[in-house]
């Protein structure tokens, strides 16, 4: 599924699925600083900064100052970023249907349930789940 999602993301001008995951987190989550976003996504802050630079250069995000801390930046989706995020999400849904077509509806639901538990219920995991 990850390989398929990387391919889908590339067809929409992204480097891979990680770019789309960041766009998805910005589209669905609360506004947060780059550091908070890095923690939420489990990315090193340097890695996230490079990724955000790339997305900003493509016009998919902008970064504004945090009103509480002028040193911090808050990444925000642009209309173009929201469009790409939505297009990749739709393509992801189609790819998922294709990848999981050999499973019954009950098996697909069980798989989603187990993967969600794996992502959210691990000891010491402060994440609130995947943004996929």
Description:
The chain is mostly helical and 132 residues long. Helix content is 61%, strand content 11%. It contains six helices and two strands, in the order ααααββαα. It has helices at 2-11, 17-28, 34-41, 45-57, 79-99, 105-120; strands spanning 61-66, 69-77. The protein has a two-stranded antiparallel ribbon with strand order 1-2. A hairpin with a 2-residue loop joins strand 1 (61-66) and strand 2. It is globular and about 50 Å long. It starts with a helix and ends in a 12-residue tail after the last helix. Residues 127-132 have low confidence and may be disordered.
Summarize the structure.
It is built from six helices and two strands. The protein is mainly alpha-helical.
Low-pLDDT runs: 127-132
Rounded average pLDDT: 89
Strand content: 5-15%
Q: What is the percent of helical residues? A: 55-70%
Q: Largest sheet, if any?
A: 2 strands, antiparallel
Strand order of the largest sheet: 1-2
Treating each run of at least 4 consecutive H or I residues as one helix, how many helices? 6
Radius of gyration from the alpha-carbon trace, in angstroms: 16 Å
Number of DSSP strand runs: 2
Computed structural class: mainly alpha
Separation of termini? 11 Å
- Tell me, what's the shape? globular
Give the H and E element order.
Answer: HHHHEEHH
């Amino acid at each position: 599924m990850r390989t398929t999602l990387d391919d889908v993301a590339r067809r929409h001008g992204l480097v891979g699925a990680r770019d789309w995951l960041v766009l998805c987190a910005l589209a669905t989550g609360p506004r947060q600083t780059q550091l908070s976003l890095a923690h939420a996504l489990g990315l090193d802050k340097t890695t996230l900064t490079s990724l955000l630079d790339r997305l900003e250069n493509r016009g998919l995000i902008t970064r504004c100052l945090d009103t509480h801390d002028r040193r911090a930046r808050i990444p925000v989706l642009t209309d173009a970023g929201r469009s790409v995020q939505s297009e990749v999400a739709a393509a992801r849904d189609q790819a998922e249907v294709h990848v999981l077509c050999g499973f019954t509806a009950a098996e697909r639901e069980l798989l989603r349930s187990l993967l969600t538990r794996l992502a959210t219920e691990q000891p010491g995991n402060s994440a609130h789940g995947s943004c996929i």
